[in-house]
Structures are given as C-alpha cells and as structure tokens.
Amino acid sequence: MSNIIVSSKILKSTTHISSNIICERIEQYNREIKHVNSGTVLQVGDGITRIYGLDEVIVGELVKFDEGTLDIALNLESNNVGVVLMGDALMIEEGSSIKAIGRIAQIPVSEAYLSLVINALTKPIDGRGKISVSESWLIESFAPGIISRRSAYEPLETGLIAIDSMIPIGRGQRELIIRDRQTGKTTIATNTILNQLKLFFLRSSPSMSPVMLTRHDIFS
Predict the structure, then answer these.
(1) In a designed cystine with 106, which of 13, 136, 169, 196 is the match (CB 3.0 to 4.6 A)?
(2) Looking at residue 51, what is its pLDDT?
(3) What tens digit of pLDDT does each residue of 23-41 get?
(4) Are 158 and 192 spatial neighbours (Cβ–Cβ below 8 Å)?
(5) DSSP per position, the chain
(6) Which is it for strands 70-76 and 81-84: parallel, antiparallel or unpaired?
(7) Within a 10 A sphere around the Cβ of 9, how many other Cβ atoms?
(8) For the residues of 82-141, what is the DSSP string, one character each?
(9) Who's near 134: CB < 8 A, 6+ residues apart?
(10) How many CA atoms lie within 13 A of 183 on its CB side?
(11) Percent of the chain with pLDDT over 70
(12) Is the pLDDT of residue 6 over 50?
C-alpha cells in the first residue's frame, strides 16, 4: 500500500513538472510566417535562365540561386520568367531553386571608384583591394529633364589643335565621331581622354611641366 502511495506522489510530481515545461514552451513559442517568392529552373543556356514560379517578381528585381549567384529578372511571361545571368552559371542546372530577394537591381556609387578598374558587376579587377561604399543607385532610373540639367559652360580640350581651333566642344556635351575605317577615330577619343588626365595633373601641380608627365604618372 505504501508503495502505491509513493508511486502516485511521484506520478503527480512528474505530471506537474511536465505541465510546467509545456506551459513555458507555449509561452515562449513564437510563430513567424515567412513568405518566400521562389521558383525552379526550367532551362539554362546562353546567359539566360527560364524559371517556373516567381509569381510576384517584378522587372529588374534581383533573384538569388542556392549557390549564391545574384541575377536580374527581366522577361516576365505568362508561364515562365526570363532571368539574365550575371555570374558563373556552371553550378546552375535544371531543377535548381531560386528566390527573389525583394530588391531592385542597384549599383554602388562612390568617388572611391575613380581611377580604378572594375568589371561589369562593379567588382575591382586591378588588385587594389575591396572598395567600401555606402550609397547605391538604381540601374534603371529616370534621367533628369533637359531644363533641370546644367548647360555646357566649360570647354573640353582634346589636345588636337586642328579640332580645338575649329570645333567648340563643351564638357558634358555628346559628340559623334564619324569616319571610315582606319582613319583615327579611336586615336582621337584616346588622345582626348589622356589630355584630360594631363590637364588634371597640371591643375593640381602648376609647377609641373607637360613634358615632365610620363605614362606612369598618368596611369598611376
């Protein structure tokens, strides 16, 4: 009889402890519902991927594959979504999962990019290390209107006397160079770019002579 009483007490104590644990778990339970706009790869090739799903994706939105590649959704059709591949497509195959990250395609913008060599994804390829930026602009954005733009007020010197003396060119003005093949169109554009660098050095160091500027000074 005593054994039965002791067992019932132990059972009541165990039941009480279990109920307390369950109550604590219920109070600590946080039910969070996360909606993910995802899809599956139907076809991949020639830098384009056809995706089934992504029902709520918008044009220009960034999408991410499981392996971490970021791409852009551009072509929205009734039964699939066309995604432009911007990274390595070797690991992407039919059946791979993809999800939209809810952000429109942007590029980082900073003066730290000046004089650096970057690829199409704004990644540095000149070995100077990572670029730290804090601001990004949309790739597809509206250009300012003609009235709000500042007119050309500063001349652009190409460094070629024949052009500078006969054709007035303003900085920021668009110019079209038309001529037959092998007549020096690229040479004119290249000399103009190099002349701007040369003028920049002369303005920053007035004591420096144009003759003193070397190729290393210009590209360093």
Answers:
(1) 136
(2) 92
(3) 777 777 666 666 778 899 9
(4) yes
(5) -HHHHHHHHHHHHHHHHHHHHHHHHHHH---------EEEEEEEETTEEEEEE-TT--TTEEEEETT--EEEEEEE-SS-EEEE--S--TT--TT-EEEEEEEE-EEE--GGGTT--B-TTS-B-SSS-PPP---EEESS-PPPPTTTSPPP-SB---S-HHHHHHS--BTT--------TTSSHHHHHHHHHHHHHHHHHHHH-TT--GGG--HHHHH-
(6) antiparallel
(7) 10
(8) EEE--S--TT--TT-EEEEEEEE-EEE--GGGTT--B-TTS-B-SSS-PPP---EEESS-
(9) 110
(10) 5
(11) 79
(12) no
Token pair, residue 112, equals: 């730290």
Q: Which amino acid is at 75?
A: N
172 Ramachandran zone, left/alpha/beta (phi>0; psi -120 to 50):
left
pTM greater than 0.70 (yes/no): no
Residue listed under structure tokens 């999800």: 99
> Of the ranges 22-36, 55-69, 94-108, 141-155, which one carries the lowest mean pLDDT score?
22-36
Query: Residue range 66-81: average pLDDT?
Result: 87
